Amino acid sequence: MSTELRRLRNYIDGEFRDAADGRTTEVVNPATGEAYATAPLSGQADVDAAMAAAAAAFPAWRDLVPAERQKALLKIADAFEERAEELIAAEVENTGKPIGLTRSEEIPPMVDQIRFFAGAARMLEGRSAGEYMEGLTSMIRREPIGVCAQVAPWNYPMMMAVWKFAPALAAGNTVVLKPSDTTPASTALMADIIGSIVPKGVFNVVCGDRDTGRLMVEHETPAMASITGSVRAGMSVAESASKDLKRVHLELGGKAPVVVFEDTDIPKAVEDISVAGFFNAGQDCTAATRVLVHEAIHDEFVSALAKAAAETRTGQPDDEDVLYGPLNNPNQLKQVAGFIERLPAHAKVEAGGHQVGDKGYFYAPTVVSGLRQDDEIVQKEVFGPVITVQSFRDEDQAVEWANGVEYALASSVWTKDHGRAMRMSKKLDFGCVWINTHIPLVAEMPHGGFKKSGYGKDLSGYGFEDYTRIKHVMTSLDA
């Protein structure tokens, strides 16, 4: 007996719709490996309709006074709180994440971030008006950009959607958002909630695959394209957007170095780093997955980290004792396993290194030591529950190795020496440097990297400003 799959739909111009040509794709729960829904596989007609709706809605939304946009965002935040259990259920089905951790670690920051951007809507800043040439007054207008094409990833479908639509709407833009083809369920529910609060056309959701995202970025209507995804996807978006000079906002891959010096409190560091490395199955661009340890404490640290990994559990969403759930899809499971299968002879698997169970896409918490700087697993993003360990001799080597990758999103330094912490924070070439902690984020501070980790900032006033444009207005005092 077959179970009927739930039907997810696009949300365009204030209504839910199937793809114009009726195409769909199955959506699989990664905790079970079984399909639970279908979603539209949207094409050109669907993207055209969503862009037209967003363009038509833009003038009125743009012209609202900021206080009105703030009210709408505050209502969205309240509604997310009120319907939190529905959002959690959709996200857990999307991702297989633990229910309890989704409730405690995702809903509160999402709501807080929406409320932050609601406040930011009324705090646009610019130079004060003044006379910089005799007889003429200059002023700055900070305006919304227009229609924003946004593509969210599958590792945090709900939260990354918030990071995109909240600043865009607060600044007065309208949005066409595409969730990942593997995780559309929570975004469809968000559309139902947001659509009941904002005017039609202000917020649109188009489901689909990589080709759908390409159609959105290449479309002539949006003035900005924003994506969270892989380096390859970001480079493709930047290339497509360059053809008509769209603004581009890219949050891409990471390979965060975790530099542990000899004066570190080892038990505390191991506890925090293991959580920051394995949380969300390591599917986090800021995950603490590349540890550099001073040679004086290397063996003790590796032993403690391997023990912590062995005590860390993965499993089904309703198991309250697990730290993380499955990898998102079979391709991701294959990718993570492939890194371990291709390890060089000098590497040693200290813990894990294998799939867990025969249902879903679970992978054991894994620690690998004995690695060299040019090893594939050190240089490339694994995006799984795998922590690598290297031994360094001094501060200069730690900096060289930490910076010696193509990514530059996040990093951390573990030491009791304040001067050393400050030197390292200056020398580390990453958008974020944590000291004696790793992975906390707050709405008031920016998130974004350098190099192949992309450009543009999420969160904070900087992220808000990314969704605005600057206009100079000069007037004669003699007129």
Key terms:
six-stranded mixed sheet; 16 helices; alpha/beta; seven-stranded mixed sheet; 479 residues
Mean of residue pLDDT values: 97
Helix/strand-derived class? alpha/beta
How many angstroms does the end-to-end distance come to?
Answer: 81 Å
Low-confidence stretches: none
Rg for CA atoms: 23 Å
Query: What portion of residues is helical?
Result: 25-40%
Protein described:
It is a single chain. This protein is of the alpha/beta class and 479 residues long. It contains 16 helices and 25 strands. The strands form 7 sheets. It has a 7-stranded mixed β-sheet with strand order 15-18-19-14-13-21-22, sandwiched between helices. Strands 10-9-8-11-12-24 form a 6-stranded mixed β-sheet, sandwiched between helices. The chain has a 3-stranded mixed β-sheet with strand order 1-5-4, covered by helices on one side. It is globular and about 75 Å long. The termini are far apart.
What's this model, at a glance?
This protein is of the alpha/beta class and 479 residues long.
SSE arrangement:
Elements lengths: L5 E2 L2 E3 L2 E3 L6 E6 L4 E7 L3 H20 L2 H17 L1 H12 L3 H7 L1 H14 L9 E4 L2 E9 L2 E5 L5 H14 L3 E5 L6 H11 L7 E3 L4 H9 L5 E5 L2 H12 L4 E5 L5 E4 L5 H13 L11 E5 L3 H14 L18 H12 L6 E4 L3 E2 L5 E2 L2 E4 L6 H4 L6 E7 L2 H9 L3 E2 L1 E5 L3 H10 L4 E4 L14 E2 L2 E2 L4 H6 L2 E9 L3
Parallel strand pairs: 1-5, 8-9, 8-11, 9-10, 11-12, 13-14, 13-21, 14-19, 18-19, 21-22
Antiparallel strand pairs: 2-3, 4-5, 6-7, 7-25, 12-24, 15-18, 16-17, 20-23
Helix pairs in contact: 2-5, 3-7, 5-6, 10-11
